[in-house]
Amino acid sequence: MSKFTALYKNDTKLLKSQECRRQQRILECKKKRNAAVMILRDIHIEDKEEKPGKRSNCKIMLAEELNEIPEDLMENWYILPVPKGYRNLLISNNNKTRAYSKYGKKIDNFDSILPGGSSLTITQKHTAIDTIYCKEINKYYVLDAICWNSLELCNNSTDMRFFWLKSKMEEMYNQFPNLPENDRRFIYLQRYRMSNWDCSEWKKNNSDTFLLNNMDGYLIYHEKTIYEPGLTPLVGWIPYEDIDILLNSV
């Protein structure tokens, strides 16, 4: 029996706590639309070089391991299949792109086609995206957007951020149609409404062989959560081997 199964079936006190915290957090999101900008305060937009190993105060939004199936799972949640890799926050500004670990440690510095990420983009604005870095293929699977081309998105709901991210990444690659494959480092991670999710169909129709062969698990996002730093019950983590337990329990 997996850890997920044990938690789902046995710990009633914990289950109530997580569901109550979800409902409370949804109400807080509606009242505190301006609170999430604290993430952006620590984005360095000054023109200076930073050495690898430097720590940033920027924090990413982290999922809680799913202990209880949300009551509104089929109505109000998205699901994202995610590969094994390293969680990275990417910040592009002043013609440079910087990668930070989920603990805020700077781990890389490179040119990219993200707005503000290199001389190719010709902009003084900045972008911050939440990603999973896969070292084997040297690519970043993009989970979420905090800001894009200096437009702050963290106060917007999940469905708005996901829509904006998809459309802007398509525009970005359309702007550079002849970009070499080695420079196409950002992959929009497909996401689905839980009401439309079919795990077998997804595996059958997915052309991303790396993702299929290197699955780590699934993230689920409530459609109305804002992007805020730290753990939140409005984003859940499901290990790869436990997805059937979830679907069979709905």
TrEMBL record:
Functions as an U snRNP-specific nuclear import adapter. Involved in the trimethylguanosine (m3G)-cap-dependent nuclear import of U snRNPs. Binds specifically to the terminal m3G-cap U snRNAs. CDD domains: Snurportin-1_C. The keyword Nucleus applies. It comes from the Eukaryota. GO terms for cellular component: cytoplasm; nucleus. One of its GO terms (molecular function) is RNA binding. Keywords: Cytoplasm, Nucleus, RNA-binding, Transport. The lineage of its organism: Eukaryota, Metazoa, Spiralia, Lophotrochozoa, Mesozoa. This is Snurportin-1. Belongs to the snurportin family. It is found in: Cytoplasm; Nucleus. InterPro entries: Snurportin-1, Snurportin1_C. The keyword Cell division does not apply. Pfam families: SPN1_m3Gcap_bd. SUPFAM superfamilies: DNA ligase/mRNA capping enzyme, catalytic domain (SSF56091). GO terms for biological process: snRNA import into nucleus.
